[in-house]
Amino acid sequence: MQIEVLLTGIGGQGVQLCAKALAMAATADGRQAMLSARYGGEMRGGQTEASVVVADTGLRSLPILPSAGSAYVMHHQYWPPVRARLRSGAPVVLNTTVIGPPEDLDGASEFLTVGIPATAMAAEAGAPMAAGFVLLGAYASLTSVASIDSIVAAMTELVPAYRREHIQANEAAIRAGAAAIEAGAADLWVMAGR
Amino acid sequence: MTAALLQGSRAIADSAIAAGCRFFAGYPMLPFTDLLEAMSAKMPEVGGTCINADSEIEAVNMALGAGAAGARAATGSCGQGIALMQEAIAEAALNEVPMVVFNMARGQQDYWQATRGGGWGDYRTLTLAPKDVAEAVVHTQLLFHLADTYRAPVCLYGDYLVAHTHMSVDVAPIDFGPLPDKSWALDGTAGGTGHARQIWTWAMGRDDAPGPGPDVHWRRLAQKFATMGEAEARHESYRCGDAEWVVVSFGTAGPFIDYVVEELRADGQRVGSFRPVTLWPFPEAALLEAAGRARGVLVYEVNAGQMIDDVRLALRGQVPATFIGGVSIDSSGMRQGDLLTVAAIRSRVLDAIGVGAGERR
Amino acid sequence: MSNRSTEPDRGQEVRIEGARQVASSRADLQVSEDHHLCPGCGHPVAWRILLEVIQELSLAQRAIGVVGHGCYTNIVRMADIDFLQCLHGRAPAVATGVKRVQPQAAVFTLQGDGDMASEGLAEVLHAAARAEKITAIMLNNGVFGDTGGQMTAASVVGQRTKTSLEGRSPELHGYPVPVAELVASLPGAAYVARSAVNTAGGVAQTKRYLKRAFETQTSGAGFSLVEVLTMCPTGWFVPTAAGPGYLSDSMQPTYPTGPLKDSLRPA
Asked: How many other C-beta atoms lie within 10 A of the C-beta of residue B130?
């Protein structure tokens, strides 16, 4: 059994970092993961997309996904190519501070959309740069793809030495996002039929 | 050891070090750069050396020197950088210095470069093309073993998807069996004993101990490469047994073809997938065995049509081969473009086997 | 060859100094008196000095030579030490790989001016900049001797070669590259000197410089380079006996001999 998530945003929002934290957390939880990234040459402002596949055993996946069962949307600019590959009814967490209410997202009615004011919540938590982690906490809590504690541990490992002072705020952001969602409301392992 | 999520480049670096690689030199060039960075981070931990060289020419010659001095040595690059290294790769083949070249290509357009090479002389370079990160981990260690077995430079043909995809992998040393000794390697200790060693493409030896000379040496090398060609061809095939159509692809395209084959089988199409794991030696006999009774062979590669030459040679005119690949590079220039997607491949396969739009699911 | 001892040389301990000095016309590490080169060539003189220095510093069982492409490549056929014959110009990079995995070895390159100044200038400069603990030796005769006397990057202004028949002209061909001075300008170079083998004094000077270069390497001080001016009467199109004089008249004004840098010297 395996689960796919497409993550999209614009460069600088931390999408790649969050995708890596999710894949590391799933691995630490004893599952297998594959992470593929696609982004432009620029570090900030361009298209950024990642995909994570998590399997309980025997992961078998392509690095460029033909379709996916969930999505994480930090920004709507590069949403159309993600939408085109999402299976109907897939849970989609989106950052409403930037995108607006879930119904504003094109094709929202085809999916199980869950809005989180991630940028606003990050600012409230005193970590305006950590909006991506708020949304990741929400995604993980909603879908049970990886445990919140493992995501916090992965984030702690990934933050470079010169940014250690952000770890506490990032953890607060992850936990705030997780708390904003009813845990397991769209448990993808259950939905996949386990 | 438990699995860790590693980027392909880091997994290859760990695997090379697990195989005993203790010298690496490279010059940054995407998508090879991450392997150089990983090597420079990991080598000091095991007392090895990683040099950020000042050109690809320097890097490959450093690896050649380290290999000649007995170390398990490697270098790498892609595209133009590999082009600059060709002279030294040929030299290592001709003077029999083992080393591993990690070619993290910007797609699949360098099949000819990898299998024909641009150096001089009668030489071949054994080249493994992994389909994903997990296979690259195994191939990396196998390459060091084969380099030492044959005293020859050998190559990994990876790409962006191998270099940059992260997977949960468990990197541990793999034992491929016994190896010939390395008493030929230079360490300086034999000087003045009458038995000093030489590594020389012309193999002329010393006045008091003449070598075989270029004629005999190069004929022996030709025989060695012929032996490698016979012994080292590797392949993977999927559902070719009763296939009417066999799709041939290499490297990271392989799993995409397998995926499409699985989908089309569900629709009742008798298709199979064949992947040369070694690009040289090309698994000719295995392909003829897998596709000899098929109606046709379809060749999918993300370039203008390079491997199809080897496919046609292998099929000896017994089965027609049709090219269904093409040039496709994404906007970064670093990786394959949209032709490497399940939808595009599926459509090309169906076109080639004559399933009309109306009959498609 | 006939009088070569079958016993392994053990450096100073088994040498019979007096007998050797009188009877032997070759260095201990030399297996043949046939140098395979032209009469009047300066290279075999430099080879012999090099082999004597290796022996006298007790480096015979630590030495690894990395040799480029030129007439001097023939040293591989007449010297009993480990050799790696490598691509044209790339010896300093190859020697870097050798030295890094055999740090106890005395690693040297032997290259010509075509090899080092023309084809491989980048390799020698970067090896020096990295302070690689190797000794680079450039035999500079100002021509491609092996291919019959064409102009190299080190040919002096006015020098007649097969590709500068009227003499090297600054307008057409620019100016020669002073390798020793370039290398000496780099902080990673610990010892740099230039000598010549066209006189008895020059031979003694060359030997002192090469010794110092190897001592620099074995002391771990950094990169060392000795540029040795040698005769090529064939490539210069002068009579054999005129070689030494031609060297001092035409080359030495452009390439002054002497030590350029010595980091081992007490301050």
From this structure: 26
The domain that holds C85 is classified in CATH as 3.40.50.970
Count of domains observed in chain B: 2
Torsion sign over Cα B7, B13, B17, B19: positive
Environment class of B216 (CB within 10 Å of its CB; exposed 0-12, middle 13-18, buried 19+): exposed
- Return all residues near C204 (Cβ < 8 A) that are at least 6 apart: none
Instruction: Give the range of the structural domain holding residue B37, as residue numbers without chain letter.
Output: 4-169
> Among the three residues B115, B144, B169, which one is the final residue of a domain in this structure?
B169
Using the predicted structure, report yes or no on whether residue B82 has a pLDDT greater than 60: yes
Q: Tell me the nearest-neighbour CA distance from A30 into chain B, angstroms.
A: 8
> What would the pLDDT profile of B115-150 be if each residue is shown by its tens digit?
998 899 999 999 999 999 999 999 999 999 999 999
d(CA B198, CA B203): 8
Distances (CA, A) of A33 to A15, A36, A60, A159, B167: 17, 10, 10, 20, 6
Considering the domain architecture, whether residues B121 and B243 belong to the same structural domain is answered as: no
Contact assignment for B186 to C9 by CB distance below 8 Å: no
Q: How many domains would you assign to chain A?
A: 1
Q: Which domain holds residue C119?
A: 17-262
- Residue B23's identity, in one-letter code, is F
Does one domain contain both B248 and B349? Answer: yes
Domain-terminating residue out of B169, B199, B225 = B169
CA–CA separation, A173 and A120 (whole Å): 11
DSSP code for A87: P
Give A22-69 pLDDT, tens digit per residue.
999 999 999 999 999 876 655 567 888 999 999 998 898 999 999 999
For chain C positions 55-84, those within 8 Å of chain B (CB to CB) are 55, 59-64, 66, 76-84
Instruction: Tell me, yes or no, whether B56 lies in a domain.
Output: yes
Q: Is C148 on the interface with B (CB under 8 A)?
A: no
What's the ipTM?
0.94
* Range of the structural domain that residue A179 is part of: 2-191
In a domain, C8, yes or no: no
Percent of chain C beyond pLDDT 90?
Answer: 84
Opening angle at CA A106, ends A100 and A110, nearest 5: 110
Q: Six-digit token pair at C16?
A: 């019979």
User: If you ran DSSP here, which 8-state letter would residue C251 be given?
Assistant: I
Q: Return the SS3 of A49.
A: strand
B54, B192, B208 ranked by CB distance to C60: nearest = B192
* Residues of A in Cβ contact (< 8 Å) with B166: 20, 23, 33-36
Domain count, chain C: 1
C116-131 pLDDT tens trace: 999 999 999 999 999 9
